[in-house]
Amino acid sequence: MSTIEDKILDGPRIHYCDDGDDDLRNNGHDEDEDTSEKGNNPVSSLFVRPDEEDERTNRLSNVKFRGGSSNTGPKGVIEDYRRQSDPKAKLDGFDDLEAEFQELMNDDSILKDYISKRMNEATNVNLPTFGKVIPLQTGNELLDAIDKENPNVLVIVHIFTKYSRSCNNMNRCISEIADQYKYVKFVTLDASVTGLSANFKENGVPALLSYKKGDLVKSLVQLDEFLDRDFDSNQVKELLSENGLLY
After folding, report:
1. Which of 12, 45, 79, 87 has the most neighbouring CB atoms within 10 Å?
2. Residue 204's domain spans which residues?
3. Are 141 and 30 contained in the same domain?
């Protein structure tokens, strides 16, 4: 039977807070040991926060239907009639629309979002939906959340500490992501109930652990070394996507 230690420590790991597993498996008996100072991690440069939403919104708002009337009064009505009667004017209007549509289609972010949405719909037809973060209180609840879930559901666990600024920010971010990825099960668990070492509790959080079919797929720990100080949900989503957890 699985234990919470097995669930948290076994499996592929990314950027452990310490080189060896012994420190993490001693159930917190290392409080007198010195911990190495966090260094700058070059991987953080891969996750520069994107700022494309406003630009994309502005592009969409500029797409206007040119077939309607924009003039008022008798002269305006006559001008509209001439415009509608002029084949060249009609073609120019359609050309403008086609050009703007093509510009939108060349926007990689729009295509990526559309493809991601369609893939999720196609692959998750028969899966349960969640849409929010589920807070867990005990290690046994974590075991149940993983082992008793549909084997095709991806479970992402945030191991956090209460008074960590980064952990509080991560909770906010995964709440936003959970609303977008309703077929992914997001849960949170306080590190104080996991039996992990004091070093992990201090330096290993925020940590995101992913499970499928009851097995640990990948663990991402010490994430404040990967992410910007004021990271947002887009950056977290990019991190999960780069590690093959979100599509």
Report:
1. 79
2. 4-50+128-242
3. yes
Q: What predicted TM-score, i.e. pTM, was given to this entire model?
A: 0.57
Looking at the structure, tell me whether residues 36 and 64 fall in a common domain: no
Percent of the chain scored above 70 by pLDDT? Answer: 50
pLDDT band at 90 (very low <50, low <70, confident <90, very high): low
Per the listing, tokens 């009505």 go with 77
d(CA 196, CA 185): 23
Residue 37 DSSP SS3: coil
Residues 146, 231, single domain; the answer is yes
The DSSP string of 174-225 is HHHHHHH-TTSEEEEEEGGGTT--HHIIIII-SEEEEEETTEEEEEE--GGG
Q: Both 139 and 45 in a single domain?
A: yes
Q: How far is the C-alpha of 2 from the C-alpha of 214, rounded, in Å?
A: 9
Of 150, 156, 144, nearest to 186 by C-alpha is: 156
Sheet holding 155-160, edge to edge: 13-14, 215-220, 207-212, 155-160, 185-190, 133-136
